[in-house]
Amino acid sequence: MNRKELDPQASPGEAFGAHLRRLRDERGWTQEELGTRMGVTGSHVSAVETGRRQPTQRFATAADRALGTGQELQQRTSAVRQNSLLEGFPDYLRREAEASEIRLYEVGVIPGLLQTPEYAAALEADAVRREAITQEQADERVALVARRQATLVRSPSPLLIVVLDEGCIRRPMGSPEIMDAQLARLIEFAELPNTVLQLAPFAMGARRPFSLPVTVLTMKDRSLMSYAESAQRGHLEREIAFVLPMLTAYHQLQAEALSQAATVAMIEEFRKGTL
């Protein structure tokens, strides 16, 4: 039976998983046995142990009760949840790096896959100012932007389709120079052979099918997944019955949005007023 090697130094989530596995091994329990005692599936325990799924407070409480470890695991979840990444996002990132097609819609800010380093830094600096995250967490997020973009440089290249709400280009971020460089980056992105860039103008009004950011992934085996976030966590949906309506709505969004040529023209026009 294959047993994945764990690296506690890789992330707080994997450190938690390695500790959970050690506690389970000490008792001679399988993942299924621990899961039964906790009221979860063995695959859930496996996903937490290998860092594919972040431990919730409820999970840690059940594990402490089953293992007789007081509040040890509950306290360890604090380190995991203080990590700069939203719960559920690490799982999405693994899928993003493997997808053959990525469709995303963003509201308010330029998405990470298209951000310049300076734009990303300005965005996170504002979060630090609001004390939403620490400077260390901000630095980690900026570094992640570069790593995510690097995963797209592969062969064959993934198809990347991006629809931005008009507010993404109108919301200033950082200095005028930073914003101008970011808009120039969008135009460069639109010229790539494996990309499509469209703007959803304010004039669309109620015809805009989404009010929040959404991503739809097509994997190499043509299976579909969607990803969406709330303020507390992200959710990667694998059930096709829920993903297909999302994909249909995305196609409708594209039909109503500006063409790529009109999008580039609008960005160029708006760019004239940034400096």
Verbal overview:
- The structure is a single chain.
- This protein is of the alpha/beta class and 275 residues long.
- It has two domains: 12-81, 434 Repressor (Amino-terminal Domain) (Orthogonal Bundle), CATH 1.10.260.40; 89-114 and 154-271, 2-Layer Sandwich (Endonuclease, Chain A), CATH 3.30.870.
- It is built from twelve helices and six strands.
- The protein has a six-stranded mixed beta sheet with strand order 3-2-1-4-5-6, with helices on both faces.
- The longest helix has 17 residues, at 135-151.
- The chain is elongated, with a radius of gyration of 21 Å.
- The termini are far apart.
- The mean pLDDT is 89.
